[in-house]
Every structure is written in C-alpha cells, then in structure tokens.
Amino acid sequence: MKYTILLFSTFLIISCGTQQKTVENMPKETTTPTANSAIIDSVNAQYDKVAENDSLNVFQNKNNHIKKTDSVLFIKNAKFTTTVKDSIIFNGNSKTKKGTTDGYVTNDGETVTVEIAADEEKKIASNHTAWNNLLQKHVSKQGNVNYKGLKTDHSKLRAYITYLGENTPTDIWSKEDKLVYWINAYNSMTVDLILRSYPLKSIKDIKKPWDQRLWKLGEKWYNLNEVEHKILRKMNEPRIHFAINCASFSCPPLLNEAFSTENLEQQLTQVTKVFLADSERNTIAANKIEISKIFKWFSKDFKQNGSLIDFLNQYSDIKINANAKKSYKDYNWNLNELR
To answer: Which of 2-6, 109-113, 152-156, 238-242 has the lowest mean pLDDT?
Structure first.
C-alpha cells in the first residue's frame, strides 16, 4: 500500500525566557543562507526515502539568535533524528529531551515542531563583512595599510569591533569559527590601536601597546596580548602567527580580506607561504636559513609535530636540510603604512 506524501514545514522556535517568537516575525534583510546545523539531521522512511529536497532557511535577528524553517516530506512511520540539544514537540505535546532524539511520525502529514530549550539557545557565528570591506578598501595586496584613509572610516571600524563585542563565540561554534573570530578581532583591534594615536612611526611609539585593555568583547575587556597568548596560541594552530598583524614592517603582511570559516585553511596556508617566500623577511636556502624572529619568539608553537625545519618544509618552496645553519633577521618595527 502506498502512503500519501505530504509536504509540511517544521518551525524552530527559540525560547527566550517565557517569550517565544516565530520565524514570520524576523526581518527580511537579516536572512542568511548558512546555519550551524539543520533541524532534521536525517529522515528515513520504512519503505522509501521521504525527503528528496530538504531545504533550510535561517533567520537572524539583532541579537544573533537563529530561527530555522525546514521543509520535509513525511509519510506514516517515517523516522527522523533531530540535532543534538534540540527538543521535540509532537502536535503541541512537549517531549523535550537533550541530546540526539529519534522520533516517528504516527499519522500521515503529522506536524512535528523542533524547539531549542531556553538554556540551549544557539547563536550563529559572527559576520565579518564590514571588516572585509574596510580591508579591501584600505589595504594593498602587499599588506600595506592606508591609515590616512582608514582614519576617515574609523567609525565603521569601531562599529565592527562593537559588533564583535555583542557576538562573542559560544560553545557550539567550531574551532574554525573561533579562529576566524579571534584573528579578525586581533587585526581590527591592532588597526584601531594605531588609529587612536595616528600619525606615528611605529606601534612602539604607543605606551605598552599590547597591554592596553581597550576593547570590550562580551563582558570582558581585552588587550592584544591576551587575545594572542591566552586564546589564539592555545588553539594549537601555529599558522596564526602569519595571520595576525602587529602593524610593523617585519610582521607578516596584513591580508587584505577578512578571514572566513569557509576559506580559513586556504587563507592560513597562503599567508604562511607568502611570508616564507618573502626574502625581506626570510632568506631560505637548502643549507642556510636566515629567518624571522617570530620563529625564535614562538619556537615551541612550530614544534608540535616535529622540528622547526619540519614545519618550514611544509610551506617553503625550497627544501631545507635538517642540519641547515640557522640565524635570525633583525626585526623592523616601522609602521606598515602604504606610501
């Protein structure tokens, strides 16, 4: 016997205290095409596959809360599995469970609502478009910064940092999401620090530049040292040293685009290779290397899976011998300004 396949929409409602808001109340202009996870992870029927064209629409409000609508084709006895931390409501009857929950549709076309419990409220990862636009406008492909031009857009930069402060990482963010957030935060905060004292010749003209707690992210005030040493370096990704910029000539160039979750791996590889290939910052030969002091200051970060030479050989165009002679270049702290 064939069962009639019906199309219905399941709505995700995020509980905020005793208030519940539906998808229809969300502003159109804040719609985003991506999400952390789908409402329904998998849908299987007893006889046939019931969901050929699952679609997920995600809505984001000013507090970055997510609302989801998932269109799925169900028949009687269809089995579904919800995402972790979701809870289930069958026709208005709560069957809240934390963790992965299996359920069955008992009637043709039965409506199933998936709701996130109030204490499991989710947020999507931050949007870095504003920062990307500033970088594209004021940073050259070589990583030189037009601080004079950025000064005219300082309010936009400050607005972006304020946005970061209101949309800090949560436990459900992926490692990639968090890396992207903190790399972009560090770089934008560094530029903000320079603009607060511009014009100047070096970041070292500023008193204790890496110790000033000037930026409030969430409920905490941060300085650059904490972001770099207490957060980014503890994420076990040594290539962050070529992604974050200290506004100085000998630093790895500031990438003229925001880091993004989708492109993170490619971007980290790119900035590492570009830095190593730059003869003004590193001179590499098979039997002799004169490299940046970054590799001296943070040497243990590059030895997580072998020696420093092992790390360099992953990204250098020149194969370096294990016993190559090693020395370090002087570090130029002059401002990385476009001239």
So the answer is: 2-6
Give the pLDDT score at 324: 97
- The span from the CA of 145 to the CA of 191, in Å, is 9
pTM: 0.68
| Domain range annotation of the chain | 6-120, 129-328
Mean pLDDT of the chain: 75
Tokens at 135, concatenated: 């970088």
Q: Of 91, 67, 87, 83, nearest to 13 (Cα)? A: 67
